[in-house]
Amino acid sequence: MAKKPLVLMILDGWGIAPPGPGNAATLAATPNLDGWFARYPHTELEASGEAVGLPAGQIGNSEVGHLNIGAGRVIYQDLSRISNAIDDGSFFQNKVLREAMERLQGTRSSLHLMGLLSDGGVHSH
Hints:
Layout: H1 24-27, H2 31-39, H3 62-69, H4 78-88, H5 95-104
């Protein structure tokens, strides 16, 4: 079989959505891209939700895409990893967390677990 060139073209932030008045990608004049798509085989990759280690329906972002593109498997993101660990109980078996809780028992002290909270879904949840 003859060797043929292969191009991995990542259109970071491009997105695939139905044509419409709010879809800048389909409204833009893209003669080169349109020509390549007409002449060469191509495919689309899932870049959000469970396909990239996020909860179903959660939008992806550049960091998530870059972590997953060459991995050959789903790289679970912190939100999914923590949620899954709480769901299956392994979060509460974490050695460092358990040691911290044991140290505080009987001391009338508090253990504060901190994180970012918002409905933004990019850097906090």
